Known about the structure:
Blueprint lengths: L4 H4 L4 H6 L2 H21 L5 H10 L5 H11 L2 H12 L14 H37 L4 E6 L2 E7 H26 L1 E2 L15 H12 L2 E2 L10 H27 L7 E2 L19 H14 L2 H6 L10 H29 L2 E2 L1 H8 L8 H10 L4 H18 L3 H6 L2 H4 L4 H7 L9 H12 L2
Parallel strand pairs: 3-4
Antiparallel strand pairs: 1-2, 5-6
Helix pairs in contact: 3-4, 3-7, 3-9, 5-6, 7-8, 7-13, 7-20, 8-10, 8-20, 10-11, 10-13, 11-13, 15-16
Amino acid sequence: MAIHPIEYRYGTDEMKFVWSEANRLEKIMKAEAALARAEADIGLIPKEAADIIESSIGSVELERVKEIEDEIHHDMMAVVLAISEKCEENADKWVHFGATSNDMLDTATGLQLKEAVAILDDKIRKLLDVLLTQAENNKNLVCAGRTHGQIGVPTTYGLRFAIWASEVARHIERLEQLKPRLIVGQMTGAVGTQAAFGKDGIEIQKKVMEYLEIGSVDVSNQIIQRDRHAEFVMWMANTVTTLDKIAVEIRSLQRSEIAEVEESFRKKQVGSSTMPHKRNPIKSEQICGLARIVRAMIEPELQNNTLWDERDLTNSSCERVVFPEACVLTDHIIKLAIGVIENLRFYPENIRRNLDLLRGLNMGEAVMIELAMRGVGRQEAHEIVRSSAMESHESGKHFKDVLLANTEVANYLSEEDIINLVDPDKYIGTAVEQVEMVVAKLKR
C-alpha cells in the first residue's frame, strides 16, 4: 500500500531507483567486493577468497537479507551473513574483514550520491539551456519592471531570464565544487584508526576507493563526517529556492489582472472543480510547495553532524528520510521547472497594456535624468518630476501632457524630447547587451 506521495505522485524513476532498497544493497555489496580485492592486493586475505566474494554478491537476494535482519536486528550484519552464505571454500570468513558497518554503509552512500548528483547535474544544465533560450528569444521584449509590487521603470523579459540563468549557473558551479567533498568513501574501522587492517590500512582504503571510482576521506572516525552531506542538502535547498523564486514570479505574472505570461494549459485540462473557467499555475505552485520540504531538510542534516564521541546512531534513521526525499524532490522540482519555463506562454498585448498602465508615470526617472543632464540640479529635477507625477496621478492626465504644460520643463525639453522620454522602448539601458553577454558566457 503506497503511503508517501513520492511513491505515486512525485519524482522520476531514475532518481527513485538510486535510493531504492535494491540499489542500496547493490552498492553495499560492491563496497564489500572492493574491500576484498584491496585486501587481496596487499596480501591480507587470499586472492581466491576475494574472487569468490566478488562472484558471490550477484546471487545475494534482498529478501534473504531482510529475513536475516528480522532475526538479528542489524542491517549491515545481515548483508555480511547473506554474502557469506553464498561463499564457498571458506571464503566466507574473509567477508567484511577488518571493516565496521559504516565503512560499507557510508561508502555505499557515496556511490549513491555519485549517481544522484549525475542526474541532478544533467537536469540543471538542461534547465540552464532553457533559461538561456528564453533570455535570448525575449531580449527585446520590453515590459514593466516592478518593485514593492508597484510598476517601476521598464525592463525586458530577456533580462529577467538572464538573471535567473546566471543564478542557476552559479548552482552548477557550486555543485562542481562540492562533488569532491561529497562523493567519497572510507575504510577506517571501528573508530577511525584502521587498527584491524594493520599497517596497510591507508593503502587498503586508497585501493578500495580506486576500485569504486570515488574519492577517499583523509581522516574519519567511525563515520564520514556529515558536514559533507549537509553541504549537499543546503545546495539542494538553495537550488530549489531559486526555482521557488522563479515560480512565484510566474504565478504573480499569471494573475488575471496582470496576465502577461501563463503556464501551458492542455486542451482537456481542468482548472477547478466548480469554476470551469480557471487556468491555474499548478506546476509553479507545486514547485513552491515542494521547495519548502527540501529546505526543511537542512536542519536535520546539520544536526546529523553533531554526534556523540566517535559516533552514535541518531543520524542513521534521519538520513534514511533526508537523502532520498531531498534528492527525489529536488530532481522533481527541476524537471517541473524545465517544463514550465520551456512551455511558458506570453501575452504581448497584456505586457504592453501593463507597460502603459500608468499613463507614462513610470518614465519619471528618464525625464528627471534628462533634466539633470541639461543643467537642472538633480534634486531640483526630482522635485519637478515628482510634482508633475502627482498632478498626473490625481488628474488622470497622461504624464506627457502634464509635462508639456509645465513651463519650467519647457525651458529645457521640447515636445519631441518629452515624447521620446516617455517612450518605454527607449529606456531599457543595456538590458539587451547584458542578455547577450550572459548568453555568450553560459551557452554550451
